[in-house]
Amino acid sequence: MKHTITFVPDNITVTVDDNTNLFKAVKAAGLYVLSSCGGKGNCGKCKVVVREGTVEPGKSRSYLSAEEIERGYVLACHSKVKSDLAVEIPQESRMQAKHKIATGARTDELIRHMKDAGGCLESRISRTYLDINPPTIDDNIADFERVKRSLDGAGLHAANLHMNYMMLSKLPRVLREANWKVTASVFSVGEVLEILDIFPGDATETRYGAAVDIGTTTVVVYLVDMMDGHIVGTASTYNSQVKCGDDVITRIVYATERNGLKELQDLAVGNVNTMLADLTEKNKVAPNMIDYIVVAGNTTMTHLFYGIDPQHIREEPYIPAATFFPLIRGKSVGLAIDPQAIIYSMPNVASYVGGDISAGVLVSQIHKQDQVSLFIDIGTNGEIVLGNKDWLVTAACSAGPAFEGSGIKFGMRAMEGAIEEVEIDPRTYEVNYRVIGDVKPIGICGSGMIDILAEMYLNNVIDQKGKIREEIGSKRIRRGESGLEYVIAWRVESAVNKEIVITEVDLDNLIRAKAAIYAGFATLLSHMGMTFAQVEHMYIAGGFGRYIDVERAITIGMLPDLPVDRFQFLGNTSIMGAYYGLLCDRLRHEAEEIAKKMTYIELSVSRSFMDEYMSALFLPHTDLGAFPTVRAEMEKRNRVV
Amino acid sequence: MKHTITFVPDNITVTVDDNTNLFKAVKAAGLYVLSSCGGKGNCGKCKVVVREGTVEPGKSRSYLSAEEIERGYVLACHSKVKSDLAVEIPQESRMQAKHKIATGARTDELIRHMKDAGGCLESRISRTYLDINPPTIDDNIADFERVKRSLDGAGLHAANLHMNYMMLSKLPRVLREANWKVTASVFSVGEVLEILDIFPGDATETRYGAAVDIGTTTVVVYLVDMMDGHIVGTASTYNSQVKCGDDVITRIVYATERNGLKELQDLAVGNVNTMLADLTEKNKVAPNMIDYIVVAGNTTMTHLFYGIDPQHIREEPYIPAATFFPLIRGKSVGLAIDPQAIIYSMPNVASYVGGDISAGVLVSQIHKQDQVSLFIDIGTNGEIVLGNKDWLVTAACSAGPAFEGSGIKFGMRAMEGAIEEVEIDPRTYEVNYRVIGDVKPIGICGSGMIDILAEMYLNNVIDQKGKIREEIGSKRIRRGESGLEYVIAWRVESAVNKEIVITEVDLDNLIRAKAAIYAGFATLLSHMGMTFAQVEHMYIAGGFGRYIDVERAITIGMLPDLPVDRFQFLGNTSIMGAYYGLLCDRLRHEAEEIAKKMTYIELSVSRSFMDEYMSALFLPHTDLGAFPTVRAEMEKRNRVV
Q1: A330 — contact with chain B (CB < 8 Å)?
Q2: How high is the ipTM of this complex?
Q3: Dihedral angle over CA of A594, A599, A601, A602, nearest 10
Q4: Which of B575, B620, B513, B617 is closest to B102 using CA atoms?
Q5: What is the number of other CB atoms lying within 10 angstroms of the CB of residue A593?
Q6: Cβ <8 Å between A600 and B348
Q7: Residue B197, helix vs strand vs coil
Q8: For residue A161, what is the nearest residue in chain B, using CA coordinates?
Q9: Burial code of B436-463, b = ≥16 C-beta within 10 A, e = fewer?
């Protein structure tokens, strides 16, 4: 028996078999619904409203409030289709699917940064215009050898000239159609030259590349004019893989146990293709003029982008297929650019410290300084590097994506409708908040969560362990389905027709996440026999990092209690480092040296990390002496500490 | 309207639309029918017999005898299907489709020849057994880097180690399934090492390669044990491309004007795959253990095997896509061996002197001798090389495939049923002949044609121009559809229920073919300011060459009148040279030096060649003084010369 499902408000219809899983039906319709667990049934995010028809809701109810059940909510992944349906995917279950396109406003600044880092415009791929003598009966050498001779004449020594099958196949046609005036795109590896492609006419001035940051949550593309380094345009979008799981572990499970490797690859490549298509169309760039792409991503994202099985990243002893990936061609991964284009991925260090981090260190320049710096990239994962010009140690602190909303009842990413700043009145416990886009809130993003944690702690709403002090008697404190919770926005204020709350479970998850980050810092320092006081610079990278209030982050003990002037926000160093590597082969090589130099500490088996982590499961920390400014603030607020 | 055609005696049925071309229907049924023109309608070879049903025979009749028409013969390519049919493909229109398999009897001799030529067992691909330390939490480098480290430990410096996408994709699985005991197949190009493939366990002793001769008419494969050079087995078959045309020009037309490039490639690759499948199965060799293939073929065959457009080979100024082809992977051409296998083609010299000739010179060793030699490869084409250790000149004499049966009324290849030796009684003009397989004859092969021409000339049946002397009054001389003809076998003797004749048109074609070969020799000599007398060695290569009676070939003026002890038959030097190149990288390199050293003379625009050709359109030659032994024989037979 077949059933027809109409999804509103999109008005998209799909026909499925009886008993089809509703989560799969949503995907079959080409629509997205939020899911942290990839449809495994345990994150409770894929809420949809059944407007008409019947589903078998399975265990949906245990994830829903009585009111939600009343209003027809089910979890898509638990529900089976039993009749024709009209299903609404409500705003809070949707991802912002449309990507953003921007122009290259940051070009000058970025090029200056790159040059400060010792970079120059020097790529491994070059273009050479060839005005080739057409063959005659007296000069009848073959096309390939004729091009070789012409390259020789242009000063490109071509004793070891290669050309692959695809290029050779089209060579005779291209040469003749272009009337023997062509531009060769030549790639050098040591003494071997390879003709990547040949274009008609003079295409020496129309070389483009792309820097790509494949984040677990966000994918960013810079389309770059390789002649001058100018950023033609930038675009960013959510990584469509999110529908298969929020974090790298869930994605690896999806790729391996659920046979989804190809799907995940297609999703990430599709994101890049869509953005490149928009950028090239908008800027009148021929997509086949893009012949070099540098990708930075964590190790798992790199595997998935290339379609390489990431299974062993997840299993002890946590082994990637490669850290320094061999070069791969555009066509191998299905990128809609020059099929011969070279794809390079910034060097990974280990299973949980990837090319985004070697890119980040390259941008931070900590590997050139005498002084010791800490670098952290806070994204869906949290990776830390400690070091200076002589040594570098690194670790991934497995903070998990709590600050991006995963595992937090009203957690969401920093987009319109997210509460991003929160203040609690010390006397009335009333809440002031600011919402991105100045609209009614639908949830809370990372910076909002940090504020909530800090404010609740400073104002005595929660204790050091994050437990809500019911005894203070605020009407905002109530007992919900998962224990005590605190109301941040009342139903009338919210866009989702219900109270937006933070629960004790949420608080616990946030404390675990911040503890993991701090314990990561502490473990690396202790590994080197150092203390926080010796850290002269603290660099914070990552999309999330741009929104953090340092003092609040210190208050909750996520960041160490250092003078605020030691902190510096770098922004998305992954895309910046990819851009450096794209334009300058010397800096690309430098990133490889950085990756080789980094000593990776596997925290998941570190006794020292476990101790530090346990000590950090308090606000701000078991050892309040390590947080003098927080202590001072608490004393100011007249609390006994 | 659909019609069903049953082909007998195969009893294969195919359903086609009304009006379908019968030639296409034969191909659709997966059957072959002889055709020199590839179905263009002008060779008259694709004769079939309509046993039941109706066809519209088109212009068939102009190619058929009255008796054939009576018996239901039509040309498949001219006929349109008008009803259900029963069609017989008679024996004379069939190709011998089944290939021959032999064991490696010639191994010892060939290895000795190769070693005499300075060869050794030294390939660019090597196998190394790696007993890799499995990863642990303390030694958790990635799989790719782990293999690299292990290769380093085995003495293979891997600073520039590459691995392609396909290999990387399967790396984690292969390593773990093999419990970290694997064999790496490593390919070296200068300082770059590439891991072509990784096999479980110790596969160092099971490396196989294949030498392949892609002839215009015949494809030969040697399956070779790369450990000791032993030929595991050999196989040969007709090149299935023959159904698209007999010679390289027809094939190029088929590839370009008739859009048949992919089909031609698939046919040749299919031939190799079929033979390799049989050879590997019979000899219990795993096909993926074949990681290196060296192909020798003429320039057009090389293009077609690789699927590269050969169009410009045919058009002045006759330019191939490449002469030194870049390396190509097994998977790129669809060979059913290790997909990563390296395919190397013996270096071509020019559009009409290919890798089969550089292979042939390598085998002949004329490039190392002080004395001057002539080398000719007589196959479907005739290529000539003149030279010694200091210089080499080469040309293709465009003899055409007359000696293989093309353009000859009863011409056929040297297979069962072919008349291969002929004697004519000087007094009675009666004919004695020998048939391959000692069966009733169905046609005449190349050596038979040379005999016929020589015997008819020596016995005064034809004049110096190849015109039949009707006045001698033999009952074997008669006037047929295309003028005078001479009966070689009477109807009662033949297997095709009709007289086997040689016509004046046939004789003219044969004289043109032999004249082209001789003129080729003469032109190269005159180019070097030399005479035949200075040629110390005359090497004859090619499948056809094995059957030539040198004295008869001198009689008709195809070969120069040199002492018989200067002639030496080398056999199929194309496959032998491919075998040398496969086993010994030094000899492969030597073949490249040979190809570079050869000066190519384009005879088709040579005034000198045209003059020589016109002079050679006589038996044996305008200048009988150049053929003293023929003159002596004629004098012996009391003819005025």
Answers
A1: no
A2: 0.84
A3: 70
A4: B575
A5: 13
A6: no
A7: strand
A8: B326
A9: beeeebbbbbbbbbbbbbbbbbbbbbbe
